[in-house]
Amino acid sequence: MSESTRPTLIERVAHWARTTPDAEAVRYLDRSHTWSQWHERLTRLAGALADAGVGPGDTVAFVDKNNLACIEVTYAASALGAATAIPNFRLAGDELVYVLDDAKPRILFVGNEFVEQIDAIRDRLTAAPQILVVGGDDDEFEPLIARSEPPSVLPQVSADDTALLLYSSGTTGHPKGVQLTHRNLAAHAEAVMSVLPFTDDDCLLVAMPLFHVGGTCYAAMGIHAGRRCVFTREADAPSLFRGLAEGANIAFLVPPVIAGVLAAGEKAIAAFSRLTRITYGAAPMPLPLLRAALAAWPDTEFVQVYGMTELAGVITALLPEVHRDETQVARMASAGTPLPGVEMRIVDPATLTDVEPGAVGELWWRSEQTTPGYWHRPEATKEAIVDGWLRSGDMGRVDDGGFVYIEDRLKDMIITGGENVYCPEVERVLVEHPEVAEVAVIGVPDPKWGETVKAVVVPTPDSTVKESELIDYTREHLAKFKCPTSIDIVDALPRNPTGKILKRSLREPYWADRPRSI
Fold first, then answer.
1. How large is the average pLDDT for residues 117-135?
2. Of the ranges 280-284, 357-361, 382-386, which is most confident?
3. Per residue in 288-305, is it b (16+ CB within 10 Å) or e — as a string?
4. What CA–CA distance (Å, rounded) separates 216 from 210?
5. DSSP secondary structure letter of residue 199
6. Who's near 38: CB < 8 A, 6+ residues apart?
7. Secondary structure element (H or E) that encloses residue 405, with its range
8. b/e for 400-432, b at 16 or more Cβ within 10 A?
9. SS (HEC) of 467-498
10. What angle do CA 3, 7, 12 make, to 5 degrees?
11. What are 501's strand-pairing partners?
12. At 13, is the secondary structure helix, strand, or coil?
């Protein structure tokens, strides 16, 4: 598909509604829709949003665990030229207030499980959106669709309009809204499908959180391809098994989920043997875990992917044939090769010039998948995107076969269980504790989550603060996954001659026996 003919999200659904109207498109819990039924629902919802004043350039937001309604809102709003912000439902109150005030949604859709959480902060929201409850006894979503009609005329929507707003934690300590356009999402789908094609019988299991590219952008790829998608409420065992029983045979999972399935025993392993392809990523996969998974599911294709929110998802892939080729064992530590249509540079972050072949530098990417920038953050956009090249913040190298190896991070970031945690965000909270003088936050290895958050704290003079007190303090202000699982209390932090904290020195004892430092 050429760059000039990228479809909008709703156009792709309309295509399948014309082509395969009676085939099942989506399934969620006890509800399913054919392509023609689903297209009608989406256009009726678009009519409801238009009647509520949503139009080009506006935003709506959705706070809930995984819910097909979130995807429906995204597609309906995008048909009007509006974007849908999907905050992480695990955010603490202060964090959620910040994100919602930044996104400024006209309408905030809230899952019934999160109504109390939103009620607790709604008086602090300067955006003051209309709030609609989704699900439960007080559901307002289905009645809204039932009483609405499609718009008589849809506005002209460009492939370059923003359709999705996903929030990524920022190095400044506050999240940034990553804009993803219709073009970004279509280009991502086409690029992945070119190396990992679907069959007519394939059905995608959408289990990862929809606030993550591994959830929403993965689902958008399945919808783009016209493949049936089964959505789970959560990525827990009962939900996953139900999805498999409903026919899902392709899944994107983070390594901790795979580890959990293997630990659950023979019945769980047998159930997962129905998957013909498991794509994994968003967190490091320890080699012993990968070997165990390959042995447990000998007939399943495994694909490792590396990507970013700013790239609408996947940008490199380690394909199935490499996973089971003993002559390429060394490449199991790589992130694979770039997708078709993707350009890559390895750049010295100090000089901004390309490094010598095989040397380590910052990975820069250029692709149709690249975000146009951060929501209302022109300076952050200018810093991240240079002449069309996205600076990843990841340090890596490329071997003579074109395989990419991620070696370290230029950005001060931890990936724990597939969630991005920026160290300054945690440090900003800890340093506000009255008995903390200085703090450095690092990622350390964890057998379940890949990495976990650790803080090294210098207390104030005469302080008697304990590790448990500081951990409890962070949990009052941050989502639990961002909070340290351990804290060392020390007399001083290591520094270089200019006074910069040497985080590498703090990390080294924990990563010394690891093949890479992330």
1. 94
2. 382-386
3. ebbebbeebbeebbbbbb
4. 5
5. P
6. 13, 17, 25, 26
7. strand 404-409
8. eeebbbbebbebbbbbbbbbbbbbbbbbbbbee
9. HHHHHHHHHHHCCHHHCCCEEEECCCCCECCC
10. 145
11. 495
12. helix
List strands edge to edge, sheet with 436-446.
Answer: 436-446, 450-459, 486-489
Q: Where are the domains of the chain?
A: 3-322, 341-409, 413-511
Rounded CA-CA distance 257/273 in Å is: 15
Q: What is the number of residues in the chain?
A: 518
CATH fold for domain 3-322: Rossmann fold (3.40.50)
Strand order in the sheet with 277-281: 31-34, 24-28, 228-231, 203-206, 250-253, 277-281, 301-308, 313-318, 337-338
Q: Is 298 left (phi over 0), alpha (psi -120 to 50) or beta?
A: alpha
Find, among 292, 231, 233, the residue nearest to 258 by Cα.
Answer: 292
Average pLDDT over residues 419-447: 87
Residues 6+ away with beta carbon under 8 Å from 229: 25, 26, 27, 203, 204, 206, 219, 222, 223
Sign of the CA dihedral running 70, 72, 73, 77: positive
C-alpha span between 226 and 11 (Å, rounded): 12
**pLDDT bracket for residue 311 (50, 70, 90):** very high
* CATH number of this structure's domain 341-409, picked from the four choices 3.30.70.2190, 3.40.50.300, 3.30.420.40, 2.30.38.10: 2.30.38.10
- Strands (E) across 64-144 are located at 83-85, 107-111, 130-134
Structure tokens at 327: 């002559």
Nearest to 416 by CA among 462, 491, 483: 483
Round the CA-based radius of gyration of the chain to a whole number and report it. 23
Instruction: Copy the structure tokens of residue 258.
Output: 């795979």
Of 304, 299, 231, 305, nearest to 269 by C-alpha is: 299
Token pair belonging to 484? 């340290």
pLDDT tens digits, 43-93: 999 999 999 999 999 999 999 999 999 999 999 999 999 999 999 999 989
**For the domain with range 413-511, which CATH number is right: 3.10.250.10, 3.90.550.10, 3.30.300.30, 3.30.1490.190?**
3.30.300.30
21-50 confidence digits (pLDDT tens): 999 999 999 999 999 999 999 999 999 999
**In this structure, how many other beta carbons lie within 10 angstroms of the beta carbon of residue 327?**
7
Residue the block writes with tokens 């379940």: 448
